[in-house]
Amino acid sequence: MPTFFNTRWDVAFRGLIIAACIGVVCHQLFAANKLAQTLHSVQSNWPAMLLILLLMPLNWLAEAIKWQQFFAKGETSTLQLLRSVLVGLCVGTITPWRTGEFPGRVLYLPSHLRIRALHSALLGGLAQAIITLCAGISFVFLFNLPASVAICAVACVVFALLIYFSFERIGAAVGTRHTFRFLHRLFPAGDSVSLSIKLRVLLIALMRYTIYCAQWMFALHVCGIDKDPATLFSAAATILLIHSIAPAFPLFDFAIRTGIAVFVCGFICDEPVLASVAATLIWCTNIALPTLAGAALLAQPGTAPQLIADQS
Questions:
Q1: Who's near 112: CB < 8 A, 6+ residues apart?
Q2: Taking each helix axis from N to C terminus, what angle separates 8-32 and 35-44, rounded to the nearest 10 degrees?
Q3: Of 152, 199, 206, 236, which is most buried with the most CB atoms under 10 A?
Q4: According to the model, what pLDDT value does residue 201 have?
Q5: Buried (b) or exposed (e) across 212-226, using 16+ Cβ within 10 A?
């Protein structure tokens, strides 16, 4: 029988998400008042900007390939997972701390894969956080950042590693408590990810991290911060480290990213405000464009199977 979200409610639900995403993107772009300066920087450094744009699909393709490691061969396709990633990004853009991203991803997948897809998406996100934190810690002291930042990052790494390699056992143990009985569906007995897969996922996360850092390096160069590659890479790694542990809210995410970039670049150049242009480029390329692509996918009829269950 048809489900609750099959007809007008499905259209309304999708329309609400799409409108909210477009609203958030437009608000942050025009509220920042950086478009004119950004366009000028792009015109004068178009080869570097072209590289940033070319790396963007590789960035999100790497995310889809990383997620695919958790599925059996032939169970899903890379293209299907890439579409799911973009839809999840669209939903995550309008939720605090991007909490809606992982549930948003599974809307695109068949119902029998959704529980495992949510489980693996969380695990993949944790792997990316571990790489970001581990790489970023190496550069914290180069910028004379407060010791509290390093302590917080190290604590996050230890905690994340513990959860990552004991993910299923921790989830199953917590699920035995009455309050968290719902976790039994997310951590079914006997269903665990092998160590080899987890290590492979970490390697792919490292590849994606390298792509992201390269984009930041090119963006800093485009906006006029001409430093040696090692300095630019260390700045990019530190920006990503701080952003990974900073709070994020839909209407202020862009401002937070910009503030972090300006703060870090203040240690390597005399005009750190230029970093706000780099942050604008990165946000437009890696967040705004994929978010709008996800909204376009969500607007297509039949993009996701029924949001509650398949027809019987």
A1: none
A2: 80
A3: 236
A4: 96
A5: bbbbbbbbbbbbebe
Q: Which domain holds residue 168?
A: 16-299
pLDDT for 281? 86
> pLDDT tens digits for 81-127?
999 999 999 888 887 777 788 888 887 788 888 888 888 898 999 99
Per the model's pLDDT, the better-predicted residue between 22 and 210 turns out to be 210
How many Å separate Cα 228 from the centre of its chain? 27
Q: Does residue 222 or residue 149 have the better pLDDT?
A: 222
**Structure token pair of residue 135:** 């790489």
In the chain, the number of structural domains is 1
In a domain, 255, yes or no: yes
Residue-level pLDDT at 57: 95
Please give the distance of CA 233 from its chain centroid, rounded to a whole number.
Answer: 19
**Sign of the CA dihedral running 47, 82, 121, 308:** positive
Tell me how far apart the alpha carbons of residues 301 and 312 are, in angstroms, rounded to a whole number. 19
Q: How far is CA 306 from CA 7, 35, 111, 162, 204, in A?
A: 10, 39, 8, 36, 31
Choose the weakest-confidence range: 40-49, 89-98, 229-238, 275-284.
40-49
Burial class of residue 182 (count of CB atoms within 10 Å of its CB; 0-12, 13-18, 19+)? exposed
Go through 263-302 and write b for each residue having 16 or more CB atoms within 10 A of its CB, e for each that does not. bbbeebbeebebbbbbbbbbbbbbbbbbbbbbbebbeeee
Instruction: Identify whether 186 is part of a domain.
Output: yes
Q: Which amino acid appears at position 300 of this protein? A: Q
pLDDT of residue 109: 83
How far is residue 88's CA from residue 84's CA, in Å, rounded to a whole number? 6
Q: 55: how many CB neighbours lie within 10 A of its CB?
A: 18
Would you say residue 1 lies in a domain? Answer: no
- pLDDT value at 130 more than 90: yes
